[in-house]
Amino acid sequence: MIRLVVADDQAILRSGLVALLRLESGIEVVGEAADGASTLAAVAEHRPDVLLLDVQMPAGITADGSPGPEDGIAVAEQLQREPGAPRIIVLTTFGRAGYLRRTMEAGAQGFMVKDTPVDRLVDAIRRVHQGLRVVDPELAAQSLAVGASPLTAKETEVLQVASRGATTAQIAGALFLSEGTVRNHVSAAIGKLGVTSRAEAVRTASDNGWL
Hints:
The chain is of the alpha/beta class. The protein has helices spanning 11-21, 36-46, 72-80, 97-105, 118-129, 137-146, 153-162, 168-175, 179-193, 198-207, and strands spanning 2-7, 27-33, 50-53, 87-92, 110-113, 134-135. A 6-stranded parallel β-sheet has the order 2-1-3-4-5-6, with helices on both faces. The longest helix is centred in the last third of the chain and has 15 residues, at 179-193.
């Protein structure tokens, strides 16, 4: 029996997926979660073999009152540092090649989009449980074409804060940088991405899964 936790912040989608998976022989859904903090708690409580994990989830609040991991990738990274971590399949509506690379670097063993047919998802769960890697073939091809992010870590951080609608001053305050340094990082990112504005840089980096 494969013990499974399903983590997704969309309650209707999560409930439907859980209902379908409970019809499959050899799979037992032992827990559900809606954010990063509750995912960690569910894994700690139920010790699943496999975790189905959404990429874009809210952080949530842990039992000690601190914020949870900021997204599914951060959840995967944290779990991989702990003994007895479940094998992870990232399941997302964001079929972007950059997300594939980031999730694999975070330690996930599978990457599937949410419109994957249930029979393929079930097969992926079983294959990952057996120790194999499972990746959507179209995304694998896209990942090779897109390549790695050209942005530095600091340029990425600046665009991540900018993606939340922050001003230059707010970005500077959040990252403990001067406004001039923020402008320099934004300018460098714009040049590397071949765009003409900060908004376009954020959109391009997001579309490629680099933020």
